[in-house]
């Protein structure tokens, strides 16, 4: 079985598992993850942060984004001509519904190309930083061209032993769950 086929099956299984989590539990765990994020040195030292706006059963990030805008330069992803770019936001009212039903910044928001920290969505991750994303490759292509530190917010149940990888996959530097915050090996 190819790595691509294995990833697809793993992605479907883990998304179903995450989707089965109740809204109440997801909210409680997201708040714990937010607290652990605020206590991490990688987050506290960063002045320019690229977040993502959560969808579906992802760790809820709206409160994290709103709070971070008070003290940091925050940008969110936007797909332009098939490429991931980040645009600075100062208000959640400057968001619109984009592809994949993800809230993203308006076109007239300032493009940001330098970040101290990029917070990357994931479906699963290993303790070594191997990440399973949604399979479109936007983040891997973007991260290949930057030296920014990376971090993923994930529920502890989404940390798994291994993920099939290819040469295009970019490892994540830090992981924050409801239980812990750590740098990958």
Mean pLDDT: 93
Structural class: alpha/beta
Strand fraction:
15-25%
Cα-based radius of gyration, to the nearest Å: 15 Å
**Annotation, overall tally of beta strands:** 12
Largest sheet: 8 strands, mixed
**Strand line-up across the major sheet:** 6-3-2-1-7-10-11-12
Could you characterize what this model shows?
- The chain is of the alpha/beta class and 185 residues long.
- 28% of the residues lie in helices and 24% in strands.
- Strands 6-3-2-1-7-10-11-12 form an eight-stranded mixed beta sheet. The chain has a two-stranded antiparallel sheet with strand order 4-5.
- The longest helix has 17 residues, at 3-19.
- The radius of gyration is 15 Å and the shape is globular.
Identify the notable features of this structure and list them briefly.
two-stranded antiparallel ribbon; 28% helix; alpha/beta; 8-stranded mixed sheet; globular; 185 residues
Task: Present the secondary structure layout.
Blueprint (H helix, E strand, L loop, with lengths): L2 H17 L3 H16 L2 H5 L2 E3 L11 H7 L4 E8 L2 E7 L5 E3 L5 E3 L5 E2 L4 E3 L4 E2 L5 E2 L5 H6 L5 E5 L20 E3 L4 E3 L2
Parallel strand pairs: 1-2, 1-7, 7-10, 10-11
Antiparallel strand pairs: 2-3, 3-6, 4-5, 8-9, 11-12
